[in-house]
Amino acid sequence: MQFGLYAPVPHVTVGSATMARSVAGGQSPLADGEVDIGYTLAKDVLLEADRCGFDIILFAERHLGADLECWVLAGAISALTQRARSMVAVHPGLWHPELVAKMAVSLDRITKGRMAINLVTGWNVEEHTMFGGDVLADTDDRYVRAEEFVAVLRGMWSETPFSREGRFYPVDKAQLLLKPATPNPPEIFTASRSPRGLDMVARTGDWWFVDFDKTSSTPDEYFANVRRAVEDMRARAAREGRKVRFALNPFIAFGDSEADAIARTERLLTPDEPDADVRKMVQRIGPAMKGGCIGRPEDVRRRLQDFHEIGIDLFLFKFPPAVEEVRAIAQHVIHPLRGQA
């Protein structure tokens, strides 16, 4: 059983006054000698997570916003961590795979083999267009392109020179004079829920962030939907002669009772006068709050073990980014489930 968290950046963060201040000041110069407070928040939270036993950090990618660029942030943080892997997001519609292959292997060597890729096929047309790319929206070509993208990554990591024919990414004798830090190259994490996207995961992914029917109204319905999705992906991967591992993104919070934990969560997530962006973020987090991981610590642990028994090997938790929250998760979940005092 592995545990992870998101690197704090604006588009995946709620309940953080520090991040709100970082966004508000993003278009103004910093005072002499200052560092962006969003970076300081990320460093404090993520280094504590590394010390507390978290296994992996997801550095999400968002260009149209006040987010620090994910590869730059990952490089800065990863040079300071000791054990956690850095999973860095990449949209094929914005990057060439040959370049990402070198960026990834560079980070992998700096971190002694602690690097992974989060492959995101993308949805934000405006962002992609503004930053020189395209989403290939409303077409299954996005998944064909993603499969080719991964093929180039793995080819570049294993062969020099590397060549392949391809509709989107033909490669002719490309040379990557660095190789991954270990015999096992960086793993590919991805997510999708459309039928063609699920086939892409089955053919290329090492890990799947389980996507499923989010209309669940109770934790039991949520659990049943996750189990069905896992069983379906296992069958798809088996048809491709492969195995895929499974990750889940539940929101986690503790209290003396479920009601107490929910009330505490609502206070953390919802400012007195939330703006439109905060409301949208809370709405997006909503489905993750139905997974049964908000409540008494012993109940949360029991639910995580239930998920693990049906195949979930990684829990990438959502929670307001704060050192205190990291320590609480380590105390109530990570250490007990690993048999630590």
Q: What's the layout of helices and strands?
A:
Blueprint: E1 2-6, H1 17-24, H2 37-52, E2 56-59, H3 70-78, E3 85-90, H4 97-110, E4 115-119, H5 125-130, H6 141-158, E5 162-164, E6 171-174, E7 187-190, H7 195-204, E8 207-209, H8 219-239, E9 245-248, E10 253-254, H9 258-269, H10 276-285, E11 294-295, H11 297-309, E12 312-317, H12 323-337
Structural notes for this entry:
The protein has 341 residues and is of the alpha/beta class. The chain has a single domain, classed as TIM Barrel, CATH 3.20.20.30. It contains twelve helices and twelve strands. The chain has helices at 17-24, 37-52, 70-78, 97-110, 125-130, 141-158, 195-204, 219-239, 258-269, 276-285, 297-309, 323-337; strands spanning 2-6, 56-59, 85-90, 115-119, 162-164, 171-174, 187-190, 207-209, 245-248, 253-254, 294-295, 312-317. The chain has an eight-stranded parallel barrel, surrounded by four helices. Strand 7 (187-190), helix 7 (195-204) and strand 8 form a beta-alpha-beta unit. The longest helix has 21 residues, at 219-239. The radius of gyration is 20 Å and the shape is globular.
First-last Cα distance:
17 Å
Give me the strand/helix succession. EHHEHEHEHHEEEHEHEEHHEHEH
The best one-word shape is globular
Biggest sheet: strand arrangement: 1-2-3-4-7-8-9-12
CATH architectural arrangement: Alpha-Beta Barrel
As a whole number of angstroms, the C-alpha radius of gyration is: 20 Å
Largest sheet: 8 strands, parallel, barrel
Number of H/I helices: 12
Stated plainly, the CATH topology is called: TIM Barrel
How many strands appear in the DSSP assignment?
Answer: 12
